[in-house]
Amino acid sequence: MKSAQTMPVALPSLGARVTPYIPLALFGALGAVLSFLWKWPCRFGGAWNDGTLQFTNFCYTDIYPLWWNEKLSEGKIPYFDYPVEYPVGIGGIMEIFRRIASSMADPAVAFYDLTVILMALCLIVGVVLMAALAGPTRRWDALWYALAPSLILTAYINWDLAAGALALAAMFAWSKQRQWLAGVMLGLAIATKFYPVMFLGPLFLLTVRTGKWKPFLQTVGGVAASWLVVNVPVMLAAFPGWRKFYVFSQERRADWGSIWYFFGNKQWPFLGDPARLDMLGIVSLGACCLAIAVLAVTAKTRPRLMQLCFLTLAAFMITNKVWSPQYVLWLIPFAVLARPNWKPIALWQIAECWYFFAIWLYLLTQRPESAALGITDDTYFTAVWGRVITILIMMGFVVRDILRPDKDVLRQDGIDDRSGGVFDGAPDKFRFALS
Asked: Does the keyword Cell membrane apply (predicted)?
């Protein structure tokens, strides 16, 4: 009698693996096109060159005026010839596109168009990566990123989508247990926009809980290596220009969108004191992070990585002294990956859209010639607090899901943490039980 032979398992072909993501990539492209069309009055109608029309048409972007403000129009090289207020990743993009756009008929518009093409590609890549992180049963959750109303409104205000794609690439690499690659991608993301540094916190907390120190340290090593490779050459060759971003961030006062701007505008005692701004921001963020840490190490069931990433990023945004409208792009994918429930997400999107329109109407009041077209302080602040309250609601639901895993729709059918990498299914090595 012949013994049974184990039949080899056929791996899916590259085409079979790629095909499910093609429709999502197309929806990402649709979101990119809709975002471009939203800027039509400025891009094709000349509203960029009118201080009132760019706000009444709601098509403002930082990219176009920065062609002149950052001296790119004069051939200045970022950091070396002129100290720009952005991290090196964005400065590198600016320099590459400056060189290309300078030879074109309308270099400022060409600079914008080139940036749009890159950001559109970053959006498409980000949507696909988000779908991959969500897993085969939840791929279509990525539509919340591809076609979110707030994304269509804000996609091309700045370079935030580039950092978003890099941060999602880091999370995807981590989910596939490619720790060095995850670190390299996360380091590049931090070198482009500072906010992805917050994701080191959730990785650390889940490492404490599971004892998976080697993967975490490998990722931290990758972060340090890629960040240094990108930054050190500029630091050594043009330190005053390189440090401008960090000095600007430290010295910046409470700005539009932040709760601290509200407190300052209303002259609240203590909370509205400009001299205490940095201290208040650090203490409030520290308190939020401490609360998240306590939750992470005391919950009976280990939180999912995306849940903690969302909570820490949301805390960073709420306590930051600047909250520009395009910052919503940071949070969308992690909010959905943390808890893809359409009702609170839709409520939040309404609040973000209201803020988008409110900020431009509010800025009209800052110019005497357009003040009659704007809105009052109190009306504007309804938009500021609308964002805060709706994000707090989503945070509350995520905390509830952590404490009551049976309520977590992503933990059904025995799934633990699909995007958690080495954390997925790992037993606890440390848990501090409060009861």
From this structure: yes
